[in-house]
Amino acid sequence: MTKETVLITGASSGIGWELAKVFAAGNSNLILVARNTTAMEKLAEELRQQFSVQVEILGCDLSQATSPQWIFDRLQGRGVDVLVNNAGFGLHGGFADLPLARQLEMIQVNIAALVALTGLFLPGMIQRRRGGILNVGSVAGFMPGPNMAVYFATKAFVLSYSEALHEELRGTGVTVTDLCPGPTETNFSMVARAHHVRQLQVARKMSAREVAVVGLRDFRSARCLSIPGWSNVFFSQLPRFNPRAWIRKAVLRVNRLK
Ligand SMILES: NC(=O)c1ccc[n+]([C@@H]2O[C@H](COP(=O)([O-])OP(=O)(O)OC[C@H]3O[C@@H](n4cnc5c(N)ncnc54)[C@H](OP(=O)(O)O)[C@@H]3O)[C@@H](O)[C@H]2O)c1
User: Fold this and answer.
1) Which residue is catalytic, options 17, 151, 219, 235?
2) Of all atoms in ligand 1, which is nearest to the CA of residue 64?
3) Nearest Cα residue to 181 out of 44, 10, 3
4) Domains of the chain, each with CATH number or no CATH
5) Which one of 26, 45, 62, 137 has the lowest number of neighbouring Cβ atoms within 10 Å?
6) Using CA positions, which residue lies closest to atom 45 of ligand 1?
7) Which tens digits make up the pLDDT trace of 6-50?
């Protein structure tokens, strides 16, 4: 049987880096996408040697609206069996205080690029009647996030969109999973400028490796939602059993500015 091809965005660090490792360990060929090609070259070399898989690298800025089509064209119709929409970032701070351009960039990377890549690669999967999409959302998607308003809202979009596609695609042979991590040890906090925030440590940070292992397991089981760690399952369910006003205030306490 030919090896499956997995395209992973945001594979230059963190959860995407670890997802590349676990897919390679399962004998998948990889296409890695991010801006930092030096980091991806290093990872690619390691994976080629360790697992004898093919690893291709595409250096690309997903905040550019033309990037998804550029990626699709570069692959010249080659089938992608699994699309992992992992690239993303957050920003801590009050909405009015954060640069608007950077917040719009976040919407482009976290939402628009994810939808565009899905729109480009999904028809081929449906035609071949196999494959799947693994979107990296967040526990943040289950609630509103004062002092990270746009980030939480982007992840709410990913949750709603992934759940809807999961149902639409029932019976097609193609699956969609939303991986919803909670706090994870990656570069995320640094990029989000979390030093502006007196974040309450409400749960143990998981390692990116732990998150990737759970994500792959749930994707292979065709689960719609994948929430790694019991504390994150608990937090994702809080909005179901508490008034929305209470949830908003609780998240504000967690994301308090210094
Ligand atoms: N860490 C957490 O606590 C946490 C919790 C829940 C969900 N998540 C989600 O997990 C996903 C991965 O984040 P992470 O925690 O692994 O953080 P990370 O270590 O900062 O990794 C983010 C990845 O996204 C890529 N990326 C960011 N902007 C990009 C752009 N404009 N174009 C192309 N690639 C871009 C980065 O690559 P380059 O910089 O090389 O472009 C990097 O590979 C994100 O969607 C994040 O929202 C993280």
Assistant:
1) 151
2) 31
3) 10
4) 5-254 (3.40.50.720)
5) 45
6) 88
7) 999 999 999 999 999 999 999 999 999 999 999 999 999 999 999
